[in-house]
Amino acid sequence: MTDLRTQLENKEVFATELTDIWKSFDGGNSFVIKGLDLKIPKGSLTAIIGFSGTGKSVILKHILGLHRPTKGSIKVLDHELGKMTDQELVVFRRKFGVLFQSAALFDDMTVLENVCFPLIEHTPLKQEKIIEVAQEKLMQVGLAAAHFNKLPSEISGGMQKRTGLARALALDPEIIFYDEPTTGLDPILTEMVDDLIVETHKSRPGTTSIMISHDLAAAFKIADFVAMLDAGQVLLSGPPEVFFNTDIDLVKRFVNKGMKLQ
Ligand SMILES: Nc1ncnc2c1ncn2[C@@H]1O[C@H](COP(=O)(O)OP(=O)(O)O)[C@@H](O)[C@H]1O
Ligand SMILES: [Mg+2]
């Protein structure tokens, strides 16, 4: 009885579980991911940090099912990705919302049309309902109705980010991914996007948010779980406190350097 309860309680404690992941792109022995283990708590706002080229984006693409590991197991929302066909993965990916560095909006579609797009592609909803849902998502991310019929080129960078986020939220994802959401932005816009990520996370209880960030101050400020990657492995993971009380020299240097740069 106790065992069953523990088992049930532990079910889906992790949004993603990566176990002993190895990845080589050339089919040979040059691995960019080398035995990586990473468990991301369900409902957390997780930041994945680390120097450039350490495998952060590659890992994100594995969780999204866009890359398959050379070896190892990836469980996302209790589903083993390795057991899914490419077609099943396409369907499964509807549980995800992704906001990349550039908002990657369709230039020739209006703000509203951009957010309608995933709803038209992936739901049987009628046009009227699609527009209603898209408007609601845009309002949730703080975009005023006056901008809904503008093209991406006619709105500011901040508004483009909001539109990209509204599109990522269109299908009510269970996991929201952000890859370097503030890279290249000025400090004011950076703060706006950081706040938007926190607000979005808080307003959707149970949703897991996974953010790749080079901005350590922001990562430690807004995330409740942090994982630092180095050379294709997880060097350290846990709540932000563990990063300030660690003996691992590389983590100390990275954290000190990152915090000074801000
Ligand atoms: N599609 C690919 N083919 C070959 N090598 C790749 C590919 N994608 C990434 N890599 C390599 O994997 C390593 C990790 O890259 P990446 O995950 O993008 O780093 P970052 O931590 O900066 O996001 C890099 O050496 C990169 O060149
Ligand atoms: Mg990257």
Task: Tell me what you see in this structure.
Helix 6 runs parallel beside helix 7 (187-202). With 262 residues, this protein is an alpha/beta fold. It contains ten helices and ten strands. The protein has helices spanning 2-10, 56-63, 86-92, 111-122, 127-140, 157-169, 187-202, 216-222, 241-244, 249-261, and strands spanning 14-24, 31-41, 45-49, 71-76, 79-80, 96-99, 175-179, 208-212, 225-230, 233-238. The protein folds into two domains: 43-65 and 174-262, P-loop containing nucleotide triphosphate hydrolases (Rossmann fold, 3-Layer(aba) Sandwich), CATH 3.40.50; 99-173, no CATH class. Helix content is 39%, strand content 23%. The strands form two sheets. Strands 6-7-8-3-9-10 form a six-stranded mixed sheet, with helices on both faces. Strands 2-1-4-5 form a four-stranded antiparallel sheet, with helices on one face.
Key traits:
10 strands; binds magnesium ion; globular; four-stranded antiparallel sheet; six-stranded mixed sheet; 10 helices; alpha/beta; Rossmann fold; 262 residues; binds adenosine-5'-diphosphate
What is the fold's blueprint, element by element?
Elements: H1 2-10, E1 14-24, E2 31-41, E3 45-49, H2 56-63, E4 71-76, E5 79-80, H3 86-92, E6 96-99, H4 111-122, H5 127-140, H6 157-169, E7 175-179, H7 187-202, E8 208-212, H8 216-222, E9 225-230, E10 233-238, H9 241-244, H10 249-261
Parallel strand pairs: 3-8, 3-9, 6-7, 7-8
Antiparallel strand pairs: 1-2, 1-4, 4-5, 9-10
Helix pairs in contact: 4-5, 4-6, 5-6, 6-7
The site of magnesium ion has 3 residues, from helix 2.
